[in-house]
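Figure S4 source data
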Amino acid sequence: MKPRERYLACTAGENVSLLEAALWVAAEHDANAVPQRSLAQARDVEVSLRIRLPNASPVDSAQALLREMAALSFARDDDPSPKPRSALLHHVLERKKGQPLSLAMLALEYAKRLDIPLIGINFPGHFLLRATGADYFLDPCGGRRLYLPDCHALLRQQMGANATLNAQHLQPATPRQMLLRLSRNLRHLYWLADDPAAALIDANRVLELGEPHADDHLARAELYQRLGCPQAERYDLERALLLSEDESQRLILTARLGSFTQLNEALH
């Protein structure tokens, strides 16, 4: 089976194989990525964590897990020029450096194997974790506890000084939501890397497997524009216009679509 088919097999049914699915996402980009080899690496890390983790309550075990991962050198990739490798899980396992979401995916996999109650939190700009029953959140990059004032400060750091924290920012993330966020991250990282063909792989996955969203169609339209595919670009602009609820965005999209009409008239 092709990597996309393997990905679909991992996400079928209720019990999504989060780490394996993310590794098949990586295999779509890198022919040298071997998910089974990466899973074996993950098992080796699991063995180390089992030995190192102290006896603690289930809630405290979640923070201890993240701290022990940090002790094993898992950390945020602080490269000033973000690269796709920080989101490709086989590279994250090899380098022990990654985005908050990538580190969180690994932590959730280990928590599942070690019976530690841990869930993902779809916080904007910086994915978070939370132990079931805890009154605080956890930074996947080292395990720092974040209480509500800390979350508010982090939100302003990510979204601007006028951002206001609300319940929507602290919602649990399902495995499928995490995989879609991973795909969007990769789409952006390949865009920054000036590799629109690679970014298109992730843009297609987002639109094929997620709910239709204007911004996702618009992102793919930009990729098609850079790839010189005007018909595909026009299709996504039309879909974005149908889905958009932002009046200013609708005006911009209408104007862009008008330029296609003018071009066709000029050609004929």
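Figure S5 source data
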Amino acid sequence: MGKGLVESLPAFGIALFVVFATWIVARFAVRISDMLVGRTEMRASLKSLFDTLVRLAIWIVGLFTAAIVVVPDLTLASMLAGLGIGAVAIGFAFKDIFENFLAGVLIMVREKMRIGDIIECEGITGKVEHINMRETHVRKQSGELTVVPNSLLFKNPVEILTDDDIRRHQVVVGVSYDTNLDHAAAVIRRAVEGVDDVLASKGVDIFAQEFNSSSVDFLVRWWAGSSPRAGWESKDKVIRAIKAGMDESHIEIPFPHVTHTFKETVPVSQLGDTRKKTP
């Protein structure tokens, strides 16, 4: 055994050199691919996928070459047969890992959900910062980083808030019951269209929506920026403008009223004897 080990040392040395050379080639290949892909308009997620595939292909070739150096009788057919036998056990043991890996590849390939988008999925809302083969990094608006398995994003509906530059926002405005609704709608429309962040060219919708307990409610909808901050800023300005317009036009925005009705009662002692007297 000792003699066989000494005789195999040169083969192990050559195999280690092959692995080292594979590491160097993989690094330079990724840099070259970055230079070539960087000149294109390919999405960042696809660039990452392309770099990973290049690195993976080089490492597979390098490790196979090193294995042949150590075991000369090893062939590609025998290696594939060995991998096939263990693939079933490995697949069951690492089912979630492979699922996330395949989901990551499909997420990177499809055009939607790019890096920088604001998404919402299963109660998670934030900005996509990074997508790799197993997980996606989502930064919440409050600053926390959420590491989301790719399978969760692939198997569940994902709402992409910034898929377009603009989206529709809305707010409910109530007016008192003695208000002329046509006049109130005109005042609201002028106020909303006068806000800078509102895209008046896309139209402003004002619908009398509901008879509420203390008011008649209008549903007001407008178009503005698609990011959450743009939505909050436009909503703030719209509410301020509507309040100023209502005050200027002397239109009441009522708060909840409660009406108490009291029935007048007469004490029994003041009723007297109302019974009929019999002769």
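The chain has three domains: 8-93, 112-160, 166-248. The longest strand covers residues 166-175.
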